[in-house]
């Protein structure tokens, strides 16, 4: 019985130390840091788009963290500078992601600033990236016979366009595009990464 208590106490001590070292100390270190000067809070539309991003599971295939050159080739891929804790100041929850089935998106707003490109990509990814394995999200769009004046239409290549219909972006699609375009971490950092 005494041996079981000692093992349990040892295990709990190790867990407590790991929690302090891996969670508490880093939290205290960055707790008072202000956001980087170039980082802006999300707008209401971008927050709605972030919710669409989460609801559709985009974070399961895309990360939002550029790793340091020591560990990866992210910068060589054109994904931007390595991420720092301040890049996520306004993110709650953080959407770092672990999978890289698709490219990292933390700087997709810099790489792809076009609404049109994003809308086409969301409706039919292979219309803009021939070998993409990303599923399309046509449920974020409506196929109508005739678009209204205030509709945002999606100009698809003929082989991807529905016959006799016009593709119109829903508000959810427009919000998601606004969120993706807000992912820009290209501002200069005050402190150099060591």
Task: Describe the protein's topology.
Blueprint: H1 2-30, H2 44-55, H3 108-111, H4 115-123, E1 141-144, E2 153-154, E3 166-169, H5 171-182
Antiparallel strand pairs: 1-3, 2-3
Shape assignment: elongated
User: By helix and strand content, what is the structural category?
Assistant: mainly alpha
The major beta sheet can be summarized as:
3 strands, antiparallel
How many helix segments? 5
Strand content: 5-15%
**Ends apart, CA distance between termini:** 50 Å
- Following the backbone from N to C, one meets helices and strands in this order, namely HHHHEEEH
List the uncertain runs.
none
Radius of gyration over all CA atoms, rounded = 22 Å
For the largest sheet, list the strands in their spatial order. 1-3-2
Number of strands: 3
> Helix fraction?
25-40%
What's the rounded overall pLDDT mean? Answer: 89
Structure explained in plain terms:
With 194 residues, the chain is mainly α. It has helices at 2-30, 44-55, 108-111, 115-123, 171-182, and strands at 141-144, 153-154, 166-169. The protein has a 3-stranded antiparallel beta sheet.
């Amino acid at each position: 019985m005494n041996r079981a208590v000692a093992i349990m106490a040892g295990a709990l001590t190790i867990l407590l130390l790991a929690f302090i070292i891996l969670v508490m100390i880093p939290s205290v270190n960055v707790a008072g840091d202000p956001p980087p000067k170039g980082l802006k809070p999300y707008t209401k539309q971008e927050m709605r788009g972030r919710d669409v991003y989460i609801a559709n599971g985009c974070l399961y295939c895309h990360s939002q963290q550029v790793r340091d050159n020591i560990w990866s080739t992210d910068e060589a891929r054109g994904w931007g500078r390595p991420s720092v804790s301040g890049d996520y100041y306004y993110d709650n929850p953080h959407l770092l992601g672990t999978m890289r089935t698709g490219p990292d998106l933390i700087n997709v707003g810099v790489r792809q600033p076009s609404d049109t490109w994003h809308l086409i990509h969301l409706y039919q990814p292979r219309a803009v990236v021939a070998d993409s394995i990303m599923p399309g999200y046509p449920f974020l769009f409506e196929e109508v016979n005739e678009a209204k004046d205030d509709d945002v239409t999606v100009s698809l290549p003929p082989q991807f366009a529905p016959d006799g219909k016009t593709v119109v972006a829903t508000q959810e699609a427009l919000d998601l595009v606004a969120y993706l375009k807000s992912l820009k971490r290209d501002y200069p950092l005050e402190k150099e990464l060591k």
